[in-house]
Every structure is written in structure tokens, then in C-alpha cells.
């Protein structure tokens, strides 16, 4: 079951795939982290952001969660989109309203 709140209508095929993949990672916790971020920002990501996010979405859940917790991704993943993803959740932007 997807938790997405965003329709894929109006997105190109590449962004639709990213939206689907963000909500179907393997662990529910990372589905929520990646999915909420993607719902909120996929429509405004630049082509460079999309490329960086496609790479980030392929990282194994435990590794990605560790990077989020530490704030220190390895070289090659230390991108503006990673920092925006981390800030999105640390700032509370990624927390749904009750």
C-alpha cells in the first residue's frame, strides 16, 4: 500500500518512476522518509536534483538511514538534494499534520 498524497498526473515518466520507487523501497520507515520528501518536492526538482535523487534512491536502507542520522554521506552522495532531504525531515517539514 502506498502512502503517497501526490498524484503522478502532470509528471514525466522519469518523475513518476521516482515517485513510485520512493514509496516502495522495502522498509516502511524509509518508504515514509523518501515518499514524503518526493511527494512534496518532485515537481520542483531540477534535472540535476532528479539525477542525484535517482542515485540516492538506490542506496540500501540501512546505509541511507545512517547517513541521515549522521549527516555525513560518502563522497558522491554529498549533494544539495541529500542535504535538502535531511533538512526536510529534521526541520519537521516531513511530518504530516494530524
From TrEMBL:
It comes from the Bacteria. It holds the Pfam family Sdh5. InterPro entries: SDH, SDH_sf. Keywords: Chaperone. One of its GO terms (biological process) is tricarboxylic acid cycle. This is FAD assembly factor SdhE. It comes from Ancylobacter mangrovi. Belongs to the SdhE FAD assembly factor family.
